[in-house]
Every structure is written in structure tokens, then in C-alpha cells.
User: Fold this.
Amino acid sequence: MKVLFICIALFTSLNSFSQSIESYILSIKNAKDEVELNIDKTPYKKEQHQAFKKYFIQVQNLINDVNGAELLFSRFQSYNYSHGVQSLCKDIILGRYLWNRLISNCTKNRFFLCADAIKAFGYYKESLQRLLANDQQNKFLRLAECK
Assistant:
């Protein structure tokens, strides 16, 4: 009876980690879509700054959480194998062109007016790449959606 209970508990926790990764990705995708909608509405107002910060902080949190939990890390890799790196990049990576446009719109007279997390996005993209398996890292480097 104990063994059955442990098996059920383990299956439930694995399933919740999988749902957790999928909900992370969906949440980041929604935040990314919001950034894309607001990127050209300058000068930025408080709501736009909050939308930008939300996206970049969510990417940062995903990376930190996956790095911090072995089981979550393995579920993240499983998610990537089943959905593909291209899908991951398309869903959560803000393209280099849009990111550069955002940086440009946030910079006025040498002052950076947006959240610091926006500047650090290049670092987080590299960190996301390091979370992938070797063959997935190679795809990440080649795919246009990941640049």
C-alpha cells in the first residue's frame, strides 16, 4: 500500500512539474506578445514599462527556477525534446531586432529609462541556451527564431 501511495505521489509531482513548465512557457509567451504590441508606442508610459519588465523578469525566473531544481531541469529538457527548440524560441525569445529597438527606445540622452532586466536579456538568452542539451544548443545557435 505504501509503495502504491509513493508511486501515485511521484507521478502527480512529475505531472505538476510538466504542467509547471508549460504554464511558464505560456505565461512568457503572453508577456512577449504584450511587449511586441507595445514596443512602438513611445514615449513609454507606466503600463508599457510594467509589461516590458514582466516579460524580462519571467524569462529570468524561468532560467533561475530550472537551474535551481533538478527535476524541473529534466522536465524542461523533456519539454524541449517534445516541442522542439524552434517552438521554444518562437514562444519565449524576443528577437534581436525587437530587443535592439526596445533598447533604443529606452535610451534617451545616454540615460537608460527602462528596467535593468531589459539590458541583461542577452545574458539570459545565453543562460537559456546553456539549459539545453548539446544537440539542442546547436539548433538554438542556428535558428533564426533564437537570435
Remarks:
- Residues 2-17 have pLDDT under 50 and may be disordered.
- The beta strands are 107-108, 111-112.
- The radius of gyration is 17 Å.
- The chain has one domain: 2-146.
